């Protein structure tokens, strides 16, 4: 990777730096070689960096691979035509979990332009603040007359352009708020900066002793620091969440009237079109099966683990997964009318309820912003009436605004959330929403989904040892030929026992029924109960093997996700109510609930019933944390007070949730609850510290004792106190 | 006090050099992976010969 050190081009203004110039972005855009970006949620040290880079470099077609540990990504430059799957498999073999990311999306968004712009503004204001501060030292230590005026003028020459450039985010935000007739935190900030600049320039012109250039710049610098921390924490989460958006190609195979098939975009489909759904593909639209037989995995939509047989005449929904055979569908609903999209609308409605949550920072700003203006105006009026001198009154008013200005308040929340989000990211949790931590700290009820959340969502065969090795060998041979999830799980489990597949010839798959073959001259079948000759299917998730010796049933069980038992125990010990809501069958849900010690559970719950259950909990005054992964959980995730979904979840579920779990273990959720409570406590402490400091400083300012030196000292001390307090989030473990 | 005529421009120039240096590092993507860059020196790869 030599493209890292880009030549520095002469830029007329630092702002141009924020905009990637066409030359470098073309270089980064991968015109020369296609780029593959992989997400690596598990990497954490230099050993992982070398491990991943050398594993990737050893793959054919890979020119270079570079790991970004901060974003937990690998960027690969490869020959045209190189696919991501073999690379992911190679990483899995080396022990690293990897997922492909949509490179176009990432390259298009480019490096974090907004973050860079903020960083450059921070640098400019920091540089200017340091220089003006040094010049001010001379004034504070007693420079007089012409010397003092010269220092003031030089300060003004540095401050005015620096503020005009660096404080733009505050000007813009305050302007937006004022135009909407609101007051936000930025209005008093901008007022303080502008008023102090005006009085300072005025004082300097009249050879006055006090100028607040350094205070205005330090204020800008500290506030930009808070803004930058805030942005960085959120940008990291946002980009990673965007990264997780799986690459599902939104295309479908349409059968034309002349019998040929064309690949078309989903948007071009119309009701009545005939669509072919290949095995292993998702059903693109709602429709009725007109030809073919297969089995359908509805786990993502309903949470059911047992595949459902599909044959002509059956209604299918968009988002379901076709397992064994090709199907021909006649579309009954496309685009926005599909059941999948209607779910999205329900989500939007559920989310509007959550918008009522007022973050702590806003609550503070609502109290603070008017208070500051009133105090400053009162100080101005009082001094004007008392002394009759407009200049003194204006100076005092500016001093009050500057002293009360929320350096500490501006840092109070972002410093804590940055520290907490960083801590959680190391634990494998991505905080997507800014207020998620505050909301998580209030949770008293936790609702879990079963399939894919508390369990892995992949079935494992039970009690294989009770079967004859010969039976297992035949089963392995048949199962190995199928892509059906049960068959694959069976084949893998038998292979793990070291049993080689038997010699079975003439293997054919009967879509929707099972696999047939010839073993020792006699037919053998693996598949559905009726087809294999078992007569009844029963309630269990199972597959049946028919050999000349008789019919054997292989029953399957969904395994618990790593850390699930531990998490439930910690939550219950914490005094939280734990509830299990699942769309799966009653027996399966009961089994998991008993294994985990969850007393309250409901099975066969529809998506809207899930959301309803959460709303009724909320109406009973409970603060609900929803943990779920399926499309059927999406509405519930959005309706809950705060929500978490694993990285393996459906896109919609991930985007509806506030926190994404990157690893496969559930255990970090308990840690998240603990950290969120600590973080909220720190935020409150920070507000108390900032208030305490104002209680001491404001009377001084109103009394006219706040010289620029006092203002500079007070501002730095309060900002430092708040930042240091934010770092006390408990020991790193 | 006439020494100030030299000292002030010199101090401002030095500060500006620092600022420009920082802008260069921003532009050269040196803040894209602070976590990884801080750990790369610990890796034993390419200790014997430079990366080709």
Automatic annotation (TrEMBL), chain A:
Task: State the EC number(s).
Answer: 3.6.3.3
Which segments constitute the HMA domain?
A: 34-99
Q: How does the protein associate with the membrane?
A: Multi-pass membrane protein
Protein name (database record): Cadmium-translocating P-type ATPase
This protein's major location comes to: membrane
- Which terms are listed as keywords in the entry? ATP-binding, Cell membrane, Hydrolase, Ion transport, Magnesium, Membrane, Metal-binding, Nucleotide-binding, Phosphoprotein, Translocase, Transmembrane, Transmembrane helix, Transport
Q: Where are the transmembrane segments?
A: 118-141, 153-178, 185-205, 211-229, 367-386, 392-417, 692-715
Q: Name its cellular compartments.
A: Cell membrane
- Gene Ontology molecular functions: hydrolase activity
Lineage: superkingdom? Bacteria
Supply the CDD domains for this chain: HMA
The record ties this protein, via InterPro entries, to:
ATPase_P-typ_cyto_dom_N, ATPase_P-typ_P_site, ATPase_P-typ_TM_dom_sf, ATPase_P-typ_transduc_dom_A_sf, ATPase_P-type_domA, HAD-like_sf, HAD_sf, Heavy-metal-associated_CS
Indicate the family of this protein. Belongs to the cation transport ATPase (P-type) (TC 3.A.3) family. Type IB subfamily.
TrEMBL record, chain B:
Q: What gene is this protein a product of?
A: ccoS
Q: Write out the ranges of the annotated region (Disordered).
A: 30-52
| Ranges annotated as biased composition (Basic and acidic residues) | 36-52
Q: Which protein is depicted?
A: Cbb3-type cytochrome oxidase assembly protein CcoS
| Alphabetical list of InterPro entries matching this protein | Cyt_oxidase_maturation_cbb3
Keywords (alphabetical) are: Membrane, Transmembrane, Transmembrane helix
The species this protein belongs to is: Arenibacterium halophilum
Pfam families given in the database record: FixS
Instruction: Give the transmembrane region(s).
Output: 6-26
Keyword Transmembrane annotated: yes
Q: Which domain of life is it from?
A: Bacteria
């Amino acid at each position: 990777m030599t493209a890292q050190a880009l030549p520095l081009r002469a830029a007329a203004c630092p702002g141009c730096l924020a905009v990637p110039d066409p030359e470098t972005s073309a270089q980064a855009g991968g015109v020369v070689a296609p780029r593959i970006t992989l997400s690596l949620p598990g990497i954490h040290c230099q050993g992982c960096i070398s491990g991943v880079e050398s594993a990737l470099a050893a793959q054919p077609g890979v020119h270079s691979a570079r790991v970004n540990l901060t974003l937990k990504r690998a960027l690969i430059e490869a020959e045209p035509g190189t696919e991501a799957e073999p690379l992911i498999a190679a990483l899995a073999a080396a022990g690293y979990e990897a997922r492909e990311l949509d490179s176009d999306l990432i390259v298009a968004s480019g490096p974090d332009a907004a973050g860079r712009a903020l960083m450059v503004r921070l640098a400019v204001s920091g540089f200017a603040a340091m220089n003006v501060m040094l010049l001010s030292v001379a004034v504070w230590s007693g420079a007089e007359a012409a010397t003092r005026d010269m220092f003031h003028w030089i300060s003004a020459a540095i401050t005015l352009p620096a503020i005009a450039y660096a404080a733009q985010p505050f000007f813009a935000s305050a302007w937006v708020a004022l135009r909407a007739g609101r007051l936000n935190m930025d209005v008093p900030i901008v007022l303080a900066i502008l008023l102090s600049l005006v009085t300072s320039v005025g004082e300097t012109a009249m050879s006055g002793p006090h100028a607040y250039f350094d205070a205005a710049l330090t204020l800008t610098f500290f506030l930009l620091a808070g803004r930058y921390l805030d942005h960085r924490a959120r940008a990291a989460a946002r980009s990673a969440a965007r990264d997780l958006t799986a690459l599902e190609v939104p295309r479908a195979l349409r059968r034309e009237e002349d019998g040929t098939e064309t690949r078309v975009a989903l948007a071009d489909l119309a009701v009545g079109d005939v669509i072919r759904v290949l095995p292993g593909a998702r059903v693109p639209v709602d429709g009725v099966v007109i030809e073919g037989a297969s089995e359908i995995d509805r786990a993502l939509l309903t949470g059911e683990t047992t595949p459902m047989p599909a044959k002509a005449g059956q209604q299918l929904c968009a988002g379901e997964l076709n397992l064994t055979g090709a199907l021909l569908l006649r579309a009954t609903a496309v685009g926005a009318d599909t059941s999948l999209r209607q779910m999205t609308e329900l989500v939007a409605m559920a989310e509007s309820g959550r918008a009522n949550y007022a973050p702590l920072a806003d609550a503070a700003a609502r109290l603070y912003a008017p208070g500051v203006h009133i105090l400053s105006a009162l100080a101005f009026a009082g001094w004007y009436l008392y002394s009759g001198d407009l200049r003194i009154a204006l100076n005092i008013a500016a001093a009050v605004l500057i002293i009360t200005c929320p350096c500490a308040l501006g840092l109070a929340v972002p410093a804590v959330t940055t520290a907490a989000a960083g801590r959680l990211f190391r634990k494998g949790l991505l905080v997507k929403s800014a207020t998620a931590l505050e909301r998580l700290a209030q949770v008293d009820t936790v609702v879990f989904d079963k399939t894919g959340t508390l369990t892995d969502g992949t079935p494992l065969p039970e009690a294989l040892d009770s079967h004859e090795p010969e039976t297992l060998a035949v089963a392995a041979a048949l199962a190995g030929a199928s892509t059906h999830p049960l068959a694959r799980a069976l084949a893998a489990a038998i292979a793990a026992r070291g049993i080689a597949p038997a010699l079975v010839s003439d293997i054919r798959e009967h879509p929707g029924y099972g696999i047939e073959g010839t073993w020792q001259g006699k037919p053998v079948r693996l598949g559905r109960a009726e087809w294999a000759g078992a007569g009844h299917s029963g309630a269990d998730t199972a597959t049946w093997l028919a050999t000349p010796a008789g019919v054997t049933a292989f029953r399957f069980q969904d395994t618990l996700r790593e850390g699930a038992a531990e998490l439930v125990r910690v939550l219950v010990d914490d005094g939280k109510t734990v509830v299990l809501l699942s769309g799966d069958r009653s027996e399966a849900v009961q089994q998991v609930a008993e294994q985990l010690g969850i007393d309250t559970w409901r099975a066969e719950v529809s998506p809207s019933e899930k959301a309803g259950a959460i709303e009724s909990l909320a109406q009973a005054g409970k603060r609900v944390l929803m943990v779920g992964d399926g499309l059927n959980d999406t509405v519930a995730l959005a309706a809950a007070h705060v929500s978490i979904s694993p990285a393996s979840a459906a896109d919609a579920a991930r985007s509806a949730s506030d926190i994404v779990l990157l690893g496969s273990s559930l255990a970090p959720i308990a840690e998240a609850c603990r950290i969120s409570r600590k973080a909220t406590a720190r935020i409150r402490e920070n507000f108390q510290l900032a208030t305490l400091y104002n209680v001491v400083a404001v009377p001084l300012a109103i009394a006219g004792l706040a010289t620029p030196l006092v203002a500079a000292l007070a501002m730095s001390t309060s900002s430092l106190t708040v930042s240091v307090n934010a770092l006390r989030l408990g020991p790193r473990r | 006090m006439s020494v100030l005529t030299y000292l002030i421009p010199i101090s401002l120039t030095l500060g500006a050099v620092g600022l420009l240096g920082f802008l260069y590092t921003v532009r050269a993507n040196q803040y894209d992976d602070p976590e990884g860059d801080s750990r790369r020196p610990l890796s034993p790869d390419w200790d014997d010969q430079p990366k080709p």
